[in-house]
Write a structure and sequence with these properties.
This protein is α+β, with helices and mostly antiparallel strands. Helix content is 52%, strand content 22%. It has a 3-stranded antiparallel sheet. A two-stranded antiparallel ribbon has the order 3-4. β3 and β4 form a beta hairpin. α1 packs across α2. The chain is elongated, with a radius of gyration of 17 Å. The model has no long low-confidence stretch (mean pLDDT 88).
């Protein structure tokens, strides 16, 4: 049975933590009777489902992001694509591209498939593929890592 009222404090906390729309946060809290932990799980599941639905969409816009490690001896470049230039210019998308370039510099995946299966360096509970799916759920567009390259001396 669904509740009609949502705890506003939990709604704000859920929105701030996940970056998911207020409507989706509200629905998660309604579906889980204001259980915060269950709401996080519900949102994660919904995000993965949304990402799967968008997987066939064409990605022709995006960014090439570079990262050079502090010592200047390791660098990485990634090409990350999305559906529209509007999304490519958002802070959320730019942050994703930067995080992916850092991941490539740190973990040296041999190809995109290997990158997607790696444990995310900032959150070991996530793979890079899951991290990308979370961003897809937030931005509402398909996102693809097209190419990557790592350089080292």
């Amino acid at each position: 049975m669904l509740m009609n009222t949502v705890d506003i404090t939990l709604l704000k906390k859920l929105r701030e933590e996940t970056g998911v729309s207020v409507a989706d946060c509200r629905k998660a809290l309604e579906e889980t009777n204001n259980n915060y932990t269950k709401s996080l799980v519900w949102l994660k599941k919904q995000g993965i489902e949304k990402a799967q639905k968008k997987a066939d969409r064409t990605t022709s816009q995006g960014l090439v992001e570079c990262y050079i490690h502090q010592n200047g001896k390791i660098g990485a470049m990634v090409e990350v694509l999305c559906e529209t230039d509007f999304v490519a210019r958002t802070d959320e998308f730019k942050n994703l591209a930067h995080e992916l370039a850092m991941q490539v510099a740190a973990m040296d995946p041999k190809d995109v498939k290997a990158l997607l299966s790696q444990e995310y360096i900032r959150d070991s509970a996530l793979t890079i593929g899951e991290f990308i799916k979370q961003t897809i759920a937030k931005l509402g567009e398909n996102i693809v890592v097209k190419r990557l390259e790592r350089f080292s001396i």
